[in-house]
Amino acid sequence: MRIVIATGNQDKVREINEILSGTDFEAVSMKSIGINPDIVEDADTFEGNALIKAKAVHALVNDYVMADDSGLCIDALNGAPGVYSARFCGENSTYQEKFDKIFEMLKDVSNDKRTAHFVCAIAVVRPDGSSFTVKEQCDGILQKTPMGSNGFGYDPIFYVPEFGMTTAQMEPEQKHKISHRGKALASMVAKLCEK
Length: 195
Ligand code: IMP
What we know:
Layout: E1 2-5, H1 10-20, E2 26-29, H2 46-58, E3 64-74, H3 95-105, E4 115-125, E5 131-142, E6 158-160, E7 165-166, H4 172-178, H5 180-192
Helix pairs in contact: 4-5
The structure holds inosinic acid.
Inosinic acid binds at residues 68-72, 85-86, 118, 151-155, 167, 179.
C-alpha cells in the first residue's frame, strides 16, 4: 500500500522509507505525485499541526497520508520554543542566533535544570478518513557550547547523557535509534500494522 508523506523534505521521505521497508507500505512524497498545497500550521500542539498537514493532503488523494511535526521543548522555558522551534528568534535567524538567545534566556538556570526534550508527533489519515496520532520524545540537556556537525537544527546543543555526546556528534543511525522521530516512526509502523 502507498503512504503519501505530507512534507517537501526528501530526507524525511528517505528516512521513512527505510523504516517502512519490510512492511506492506511504500512511502512516496507528496511532491512526487504532483501535490504541493499551501498549509497553515496554526495549531498550538505538535499533534494538532501534524493532523492539519495530513488532512490537507488527504483531501487531495485517496491514499494513506502521514505528516510529522517536531520541535525542541525546554523545561526551564515552560516548553518553549516547542511548536515554534523553526521560527524561534525570527523566521530567518541562524541557528547560532537561536542558540545565543537560548543561552541568554538560560543564563541564570542551574546546570541540573537545563533539561529539554525533542518531541515528534506523527499523524496518519487512512483512506476512509479515520486518523490517529503518535508522539515520542528524546530527553537531553542543553549544552552551553555547540558541538558536532551532523544532524541539523538544535542538534549541536542537545547533549544526551547516556551517549556522552550531542545529537550532532552522533552517527545518523545512532541518532535515528534514540531520536524522537525514529521512535515516533516506529510507533506509527506498529499502529499501521495492527490488525
Ligand atoms: P519540522 O518538524 O521539520 O517542522 O521541524 C521543526 C523544527 O524543530 C526544526 O526546524 C528544528 O529547528 C527543530 N527540530 C526538530 N527535530 C530536530 C532534530 O532532530 N534535531 C534538531 N532540531 C530539530
